[in-house]
Amino acid sequence: MASPDVIPFALRGIDTHQFAIIADSYDDTAEIMLQVGVNVGASHEAHTISIYFEIRFLSNEKPFVILETECQFEIQENTYDSFFTKDKQSLIVPMLFCDHLGIITVGTARGILYEKLKDTEFDELLLPTVNLTEHFTEDIVLTKAI
Asked: Pick from 41, 98, 102, 113: CA 20 to 30 A from residue 137's CA?
């Protein structure tokens, strides 16, 4: 398997799967909380790894801003193939590589959020730094669907 610091890849797609402002859920006297989620997917045909990133800004435990985005990264074919287990039923993506792709995805989400909130009542709301080491604690194993 290729070392995470020499994996050739390119950003090939960015999708915003969901964006919502639920102004009625916002309470300007409440503390704002942030929920984040991150998932990893793959397309064997396209040799891509996708990082799905979801953020929810909460007020009184109710979401008032929601963003779900995805970045697709094309991996060089022979490197992508090296991620497969011998039986070709699972793909093992190195943790540090997922961290790197995740950092790119979070930065992309930050820009999307900024643009979506511009000229709204929430235009000063920024996505803070997100520590992805809490989410990627080991190599990611993706099992092929049958």
From this structure: 113
Q: Is 26 within a domain? A: yes
Q: What is the pLDDT of residues 52-77, one digit of tens each?
A: 999 999 999 999 999 999 999 999 99
Q: Rounded to whole angstroms, how far apart are CA atoms 1 and 81?
A: 9
Alpha-carbon span 131 to 118, nearest angstrom: 25
For 109, the domain range is 7-127
Whether 14 contacts 71, CB under 8 Å: yes
**Cβ neighbours of residue 94 under 8 Å, at least 6 residues apart?**
1, 2, 4, 7, 139
Q: What's the CATH code of the domain at 84?
A: 3.10.420.10
Read off the pLDDT of residues 16-51 as tens digits, 9 standing for 90 and up: 999 999 999 999 999 999 999 999 999 999 999 999
